[in-house]
């Protein structure tokens, strides 16, 4: 059985890695005024953060359903099935768009997967699916493995300013107000597909240490773990943190990634994240 793998741009899988694993990508967009840019195609993360210095915060939009249908049907000419992995349905309608397109697409069986998360943790699902597809595993078996991964998948986000999440409706106004009033550094995570506060600490350093403790606790339970440090235009800080984590947890495999334009719009520059799962 030949299975194709699709994801959306918010997985932020580097182009060379997508090409290596034959993963197709559907872009979301950021909109500055009347100008729309497809992330990872028309605008890079670096260009986006540069634009933010002189322009108002953009809005974001999900891919048109027709774009999904077109891609699914094109893949159907070569593949028996398509697994399409998307950011959490609790913060975007992209997954629902893929579900609608799956019902409309002719000549191919499409399996939409709600990662219930975003960024490189979402990318981990797509990479796992692609590796299993390359081995010729049936789509149902791959989907079962992705569901199994959810049991160990974790992601924590530390933001400098809650106002972006509040404005975009990804976090309630009351929560954002309390955070700014107390000058705390909130640690956020995904609960039931949405972004919710996890804990509040007083400094960035304490936030980083707390999240590192959570990873260490999981890693100590046994098994092999893969983790990713994610940054919003603060790569040097992220690299330093990654080096610290690698020294503390030599048994964990680490990589570095970034919050691109769409997710960066909602989190703001300077945000950091740490995600992981059991291999």
From TrEMBL:
It comes from the Bacteria. Keywords: Lipid-binding. InterPro entries: DegV (IPR003797), DegV_C (IPR043168), DegV_domain_contain (IPR050270). This is DegV domain-containing protein. The lineage of its organism: Bacteria, Bacillati, Bacillota, Bacilli, Bacillales. One of its GO terms (molecular function) is lipid binding.
């Amino acid at each position: 059985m030949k299975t194709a793998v699709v994801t959306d741009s918010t997985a932020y899988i580097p182009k060379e890695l997508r090409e290596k694993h034959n993963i197709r990508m559907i872009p979301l967009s950021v909109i500055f005024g009347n100008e729309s840019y497809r992330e990872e195609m028309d605008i890079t993360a670096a260009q986006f953060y540069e634009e933010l210095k002189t322009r108002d915060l953009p809005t974001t939009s999900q891919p048109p359903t027709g774009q999904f249908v077109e891609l699914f049907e094109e893949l159907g000419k070569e593949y028996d099935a398509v697994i399409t992995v998307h950011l959490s349905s609790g913060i975007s309608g992209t997954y629902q768009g893929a579900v609608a397109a799956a019902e409309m697409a002719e000549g191919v069986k499409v399996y939409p997967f709600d990662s219930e998360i975003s960024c490189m943790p979402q990318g981990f699902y797509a990479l796992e699916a692609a590796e299993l597809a390359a081995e010729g595993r049936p789509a149902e078996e791959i989907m079962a493995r992705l569901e199994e991964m959810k049991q160990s998948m974790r992601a924590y986000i530390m933001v400098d300013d809650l106002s972006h999440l509040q404005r975009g409706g990804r976090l309630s106004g009351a929560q954002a107000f309390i955070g700014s009033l107390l000058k705390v550094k909130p640690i956020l995570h995904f609960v039931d597909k949405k972004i919710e506060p996890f804990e509040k600490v007083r400094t960035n350093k304490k936030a980083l240490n707390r999240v590192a403790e959570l990873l260490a606790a999981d890693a100590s339970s046994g098994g092999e773990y893969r983790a990713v440090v994610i940054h919003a235009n603060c790569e040097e800080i992220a690299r330093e943190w990654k080096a610290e984590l690698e020294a503390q947890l030599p048994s964990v495999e680490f990589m570095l990634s970034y919050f691109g334009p769409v997710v960066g719009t909602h989190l703001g520059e300077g945000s950091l994240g740490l995600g992981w799962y059991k291999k």
